[in-house]
Amino acid sequence: MYDVIVVGTRVAGAPLAMLLARRGYRVLAVDRASFPSDTPSTHFIHQAGLSLLNSWGLLDTVVATGCPPIRHLNFTYADIEIRGMADPSADGIDAVYCPRRTVLDKILVDAAGDAGVELIEGFAVSDLIFDGDKVVGIRGRVGEGAEREFRARLVVGADGSNSTVAKLVGAQEYDAYPAAGFVYYSYYTGVDWGMQHRTGFGDQQFAAWPTNDDQYLVAIIRERSRFRDFRDDPDAKMQEIIDAIDPEIGARFRDTAQRVEPFRPMLYPHNYRRRSYGDGWALVGDAGYHKDPFTGWGITDAFKYGQLLADLAHQGLSGERPMAEALAEYERERDAQSLSTYDLTRSISELTFTPFYDSVFRATSRSEHYTTKFFGLIAGLYPPDKFFGEQQLTDLYEEVDFPVADRHVVNPEERRPSDIEQRTETVTA
């Protein structure tokens, strides 16, 4: 009998299992993959995520793999240019990193094992075990082996957007929005552009950043309706998009870049939240909450809310408070803390700005001070109300002498945590 079973051991499940094992709980973690293995990802870890890695004692291990630090970021949205970097985080982190998932996930799985987690790789969960309405375990097998059963006080699905655990408990979605685009990416040598996140006119974007083995990840995002056309000749289409957004970089890409791996298409799922707890179960990572990869917050959020779930599950497991109460707080806090990131990502992932975001970011690009604040917002180093607050935006417009007619200090699409709570209640009523 385990205290916790975690299904899925990548960037949400492995840290959760590790953190609970470090508290002395008996934890089993299973994954259908064997490690090291790859998975579709943009690799980006913001400073807030790196701070968590640092607190877990794992950042130095990631840095030691040779993944290059990135200390200057280049963002463009049509004719708006925002270039710079956030101030260092409270623990001195002054860079971002984009490690290969073959590297990062293996580090996390090994750390879980070192903490005492029992790991079974290549294990596919086929069913959950119920005692009445309560989840009390899992059932599955490794390859063609015999079916096995394991029981626990809490079963956590950290098994991605197509979560088996979510399906088996009937976790309902809420606050869902259609996906706006698709991603195509691969790895290249002969690229040395620094970190680029460039959105051009005509609903198209390319991005690039260094990763392990002296390679760059180069990716494009286009609106979803263009997917079939793009996949007919992705090399030519990627070159065409880079040329259109930045002809100088396009020429360098044509002359020196060499693709060294196959393309990875990501026709990713829509944006959603799922009911993420019930009697004997919880969901974390993309199993419970997914958003467009445009802002690169997937890994950092997996770390952040894995830590949150570990802290609150501990309260339930230790008897400090009822487990149902602790898990309800986990979902409520996750939704409240992620609301602004979710809404910002959903809005700008459509590759066109609303008048509010156009005015805010256009004014930001004219202020060195607010540019640094922008990257602090993106890095997760302080809450959005410190950037998007009415007084803060009023001060920004005054500083850069922005045209009065174009000033927007209130986002008409902005929502409050209570909006999410109301929608959650509707789903579960």
UniProtKB/TrEMBL annotation:
GO terms of molecular function: FAD binding
Pfam families for this protein: FAD_binding_3 (PF01494)
Cross-referenced SUPFAM superfamilies: FAD/NAD(P)-binding domain
Domain FAD-binding: 2-336
Name this polypeptide is given: NAD(P)/FAD-dependent oxidoreductase
Organism lineage string: Bacteria, Bacillati, Actinomycetota, Actinomycetes, Mycobacteriales
